[in-house]
Amino acid sequence: MRLANKVAIVTGGGSGFGEGIARRFAAEGAAVAIGDLNLAGAERVAGEITRAGGKALPVAADVTSNKQMKALVDAAVKAFGGLDIFVNNAGMPQRNAPLLNTDEETFDRIFAVNVKSIYLSAIHAVPEMRKRKGGCFINIASTAGVRPRPGLVWYNGSKGAVITLTKAMAVELAPEQIRVNALNPVAGLTPMLKEFMGGEETEEMKAKFVSTIPIGRFSTPQDIANAALYFASDEANFITGVCMEVDGGRCI
Predict the structure, then answer these.
(1) Which of 13, 57, 64, 97 has the greatest CB tally within 10 Å of its CB?
(2) Is there a domain that residue 204 lies in?
(3) Above 80 in pLDDT, residue 61?
(4) Number of CB atoms found within 10 A of residue 235's CB
(5) What pLDDT, on the 0 to 100 scale, is given for residue 191?
């Protein structure tokens, strides 16, 4: 197993890409703490992993809260004995609209969920990784941070920040054997898709979007989980500061 004896935290693990990552990590031997604002979703995923013979812990967590992020890390360490991997997956989309149509409250929430959460994860996870003499962060950014599109200006900016933070963290933490990488998924069939399409998801709109992806389909949780597994595994122990597109060729 590629993650045997590893302890991982996955935020937003109760659905979508996070669920796929949590399931894949558990199948490869990791003990996984699943943090999610929706505790019921985290409990569902953790329960299914446990019934399949894996180790998982559901934790209610708002990634914008210092107190709750600390509690998430503490819960993982208490349950599983340490921390090796932190996946910053929880994210907030922006409804596709002209840039001036986003209110200040929504702007603040986008940056709190997508950017501040990475700061909070570092504050609480790095000290635990230092105890293990190494570790791994995986930040879920987006193709929006590489090739921005109109109508998603503030979301684009938040994911651009994730990419820059990833590289900066990687350089600073490398001497301590703490690796930091990011994945840039293209849109998938997740609850966020409707927002990216302006609040209305039709077959015609989905077909138009897919036409921009050379491989010809949306991303799936399994696609993202497979890439995350590589970054988390010892096979990638010389890989840090990499922001990898998982996008079927959309950013080419």
Answers:
(1) 13
(2) no
(3) yes
(4) 11
(5) 67
CATH number at residue 232: 3.40.50.720
The distance in angstroms from the start CA to the end CA of the chain is 34
| pLDDT one-digit tens code per residue, 100-110 | 999 999 999 99
Q: Check residues 199 and 20 and name the one with the higher pLDDT.
A: 20
Marked catalytic residue, from 155, 196, 218, 231: 155
For the stretch 221-232, pLDDT in tens is 999 999 999 999
> Considering the domain boundaries, does residue 2 fall inside one?
no
Which residue in the block uniquely carries the two structure tokens 């090796």? Answer: 84
- Residue 141 in contact with residue 183, Cβ under 8 Å? yes
Domain of residue 115, residue span? 7-187+220-243
How many Å apart are CA 129 and CA 7, to the nearest integer?
Answer: 10
Q: Which of 33, 44, 117 is nearest to 83 (CA)?
A: 33
CB 114 within 8 A of CB 152: no
* Catalytic residue flag (residue 230): no
Q: How many domains does the chain have?
A: 1
Residue 252 lies in a domain: no
Instruction: Find, among 55, 51, 63, the residue nearest to 81 by Cα.
Output: 55
Residue 58 domain flag: yes
Q: Which amino acid appears at position 35 of this protein?
A: G
Write the CB contacts of 27 (distance below 8 Å, at least 6 apart in sequence).
52, 54
Q: What is the pLDDT of residues 167-221, one digit of tens each?
A: 999 999 999 999 999 999 998 877 677 777 666 778 888 888 899 999 999 999 9
